[in-house]
Amino acid sequence: MKIHVIATHLEYYNKWRRDNSEDPLSSLEQPNPKQLGITIDNAVKVLKKLKEIKVGREFVDAVHEKCKRPRNTTMYKEKLYALVIETLIEELESDK
User: Fold this and answer.
1) Which of 45, 38, 54, 43 is nearest to 4 (CA)?
2) Alpha-helical segments (H) within 1-96
């Protein structure tokens, strides 16, 4: 499950949980309990994986391999940063 989907589901659940409107027409629909459980399981999986990821040589090499710029340019640094974030998200969302 993608991280943004997990966040969207949990945000909706929290809105629903906090909704104390007495007007039944303005109330949010109760989230599907099965879907909520799946979302929580995926959130836990991502958090555990994040804890386990070490920014070690293999991670840096994987990011560096994607980046084909000279090391001393500002563009390289910006691209490298973007690739680090992209690679981290890919790793968090993978089923490894």
Assistant:
1) 43
2) 3-18, 33-52, 57-66, 74-93
In one-letter notation, the amino acid at residue 29 is E
DSSP type of residue 73? S
pLDDT in tens, 28-66: 888 999 999 999 999 998 888 877 766 666 666 666 677
Would you say the pTM of this structure is higher than 0.85? no
Ordered by start, the domain boundaries in the chain are 1-52, 53-96
Amino acid letter, 64:
H
Distance CA(57)–CA(36), nearest Å, equals 37
The predicted structure's pLDDT at residue 84: 78
Q: What is the dihedral of CA 7, 64, 57, 94, to 10 degrees?
A: 30
